Amino acid sequence: MIVYRVRPEAPPQAIAEYPLKRVWDFLLASSALLVSLPLWVAFAIAIKVEDGGPIFYRQKRWGKDKTSIDVYKFRTMVVDADTKFGIVQAEENDPRVTRVGRFLRATSLDEMPQILNIWKGEMSWVGPRALPMNEVQIREESGYIPDEAVPGFELRCRVRPGLTGVAQVYAPRDVPRRDKFRYDLIYIQNQSFCLDAKLIVLSFWITFRGSWERRSKKF
Question: Taking all residues of the chain, what is their mean pLDDT, rounded to a whole number?
Answer without folding.
Answer: 87
